[in-house]
Amino acid sequence: MLELRHLRTLIALRDAGSLVEAAERVHLTQSALSHQIKDLEERLDNPLFVRKTRPVEFTRAGQRLLTLAEQVLPLVRMAERDLARLAGNEQGRLHMAIECHSCFQWLMPTVDHFRDHWPEVEIDIPGGHHFDPLPALAREQLDLVITADPQPLPGIHYEPLFRYEGLLAVARQHRLAGKPFVTPEALAEETLITYPVEHSRLDVFTQFLDPAGVRPKELRTAELTIMMMQLVASGRGVCALPNWALTEYLERDYVKAVALGEKGVWSTLFAAIREETRQAPWMEDFLRTARETSFAVLEGIKPA
Amino acid sequence: MLELRHLRTLIALRDAGSLVEAAERVHLTQSALSHQIKDLEERLDNPLFVRKTRPVEFTRAGQRLLTLAEQVLPLVRMAERDLARLAGNEQGRLHMAIECHSCFQWLMPTVDHFRDHWPEVEIDIPGGHHFDPLPALAREQLDLVITADPQPLPGIHYEPLFRYEGLLAVARQHRLAGKPFVTPEALAEETLITYPVEHSRLDVFTQFLDPAGVRPKELRTAELTIMMMQLVASGRGVCALPNWALTEYLERDYVKAVALGEKGVWSTLFAAIREETRQAPWMEDFLRTARETSFAVLEGIKPA
DNA sequence: CGACAACATGAGAAATACTCATTTAAAGAC
DNA sequence: GTCTTTAAATGAGTATTTCTCATGTTGTCG
Hints:
- The structure is a homodimer.
- By secondary structure, the first copy, chain A, is an alpha/beta fold.
- Chain A contains ten helices and twelve strands.
- Chain A has helices at residues 4-16, 19-25, 30-44, 60-86, 104-117, 133-138, 203-212, 225-233, 243-251, 281-297; strands at 49-50, 57-58, 92-98, 121-124, 144-147, 156-170, 181-182, 191-194, 218-221, 238-242, 256-260, 265-274.
- In chain A, strands 3, 4, 5, 6, 7, 8, 9, 10, 11 and 12 form a ten-stranded mixed sheet that branches. A two-stranded antiparallel sheet of chain A has the order 1-2.
- Chains A and B meet through helix 4 of A and helix 4 of B.
- The first copy, chain A, binds a DNA duplex through residues 5, 18-20, 28-36, 38-39, 51-52, 54.
């Protein structure tokens, strides 16, 4: 018998393009999905997708089921939201801080969507606070903090959102452009541009340069991504940024990107929340939509 | 996680009015449904229906899920139909005979519905054949026969549709009216009106009178239910009919009904089909909708 | 009150959905 | 062409879920 599980799988498969990645998204193994879909295909007596292509291509039967999924799953989600409200957990506050300078890109659609669906929850990103966000979260001045470096604090839970790769942006004609990856040592000859924050909060240092004991030749800071890009493009330095923050500049061929080290430097972005708010239906919904929109909007990220 | 299974259960529960009957409809035990719904309620943190009422009464949460089910399940069914078509089993013929004089009432809506959804399948109820329907089914002159007395024939499968009770219709002022049930012996004093068919095909004889060795004082036949009702109402005899064939006359208080024996006489109505056509998706769909419409249209019947 | 009907509950059985370890197949690299 | 890498399939075993069975509880009606 067809179940919602199958529809969810197919949607994940379409969005991911391969079984392996789809499996990550729904938090199952590749094998599980392979079996699941095989069962389904046998019962329907019809293949659902062509495996030999990248991304996978759906047969007519597969497309029909995807159509069904698109009709049905939103209805189901709306119903679940209504039920959560009926359960009585409707009041709430969601004030958040963002430690990640380029996160607004995907956070804004999430916030908009959320505001529509949970009008009773007061959602806000209060600007211009100068205190440390994580302690502020603990003392209930904030309700959610987007951060890439979780620090163990009592009562604080870190909910992984997605993993992303730190890439090194270099000028198009730069000597490192086109290399498959860059070694820490190579950066000893470069000017590194960063956001004006402590080095302990930057992955280039903590995960790449510090372990190798290397320091860049020179350091300079910039507030905004676009300024960094201008500096990089004009050959005044290099900078490390999340892959998704770079895609638009890469597409316009404004700069080039190289991986940091052979394996790349991968970090996880977290939503820090208080344990008490973790079960709240609107919080679960916010995290879910946050993940969904980030996967929809950003390229090159992976499930945590 | 919410699944279609839950929605199907809730619909069955609403249609049936009690867990016990709903369980019969979805072919599970009462216990299974009880557990299933309990799980759901716990996860939603909300009761779904009030158990102490008959029929059960749904809470707001339950109603919300029912709404969802009504939106979603038809979509799912349409998709399944499309998939069955894609699987290639689209051609078919469905000529049927009806051995049961009062079946048109529920069969017609079924046929109409089916014609809409399977335009490629030729559906018909050829009239005026004088041959025995079951052998005609075996030799492929027919594809489906509605009958209440299955006879073992090679290659013929009897698919139970529903169970119904045979009731004795008597005039309002008749001496038996108002009794909880009637004994076979009591019929020895009555004129029994039947359809003009062999007695071996009438449950009153096979299940009630013959076992007790009783014969009615007199016998007469009538072609149509309405004629029988007129004879009964005017005190010219009594007649045994399925409970659902009587409801409209009972509601208008045209005649009264009494059960046949303490336990009542229950029969099962079958759809006789050839084994080969049993798996055909349109056949499965026809049987499903036949069951559905009969439960929707007829009162007092039970799942087989 | 006692009998009956509907639902709940706990324990164990059956079905199913998953994981792990391997194999097969295809696509790229050299 | 062979070697490597990546994706998907497969089989066996495990875990989980979902049933059934047997029994207990509660409410209803004569």
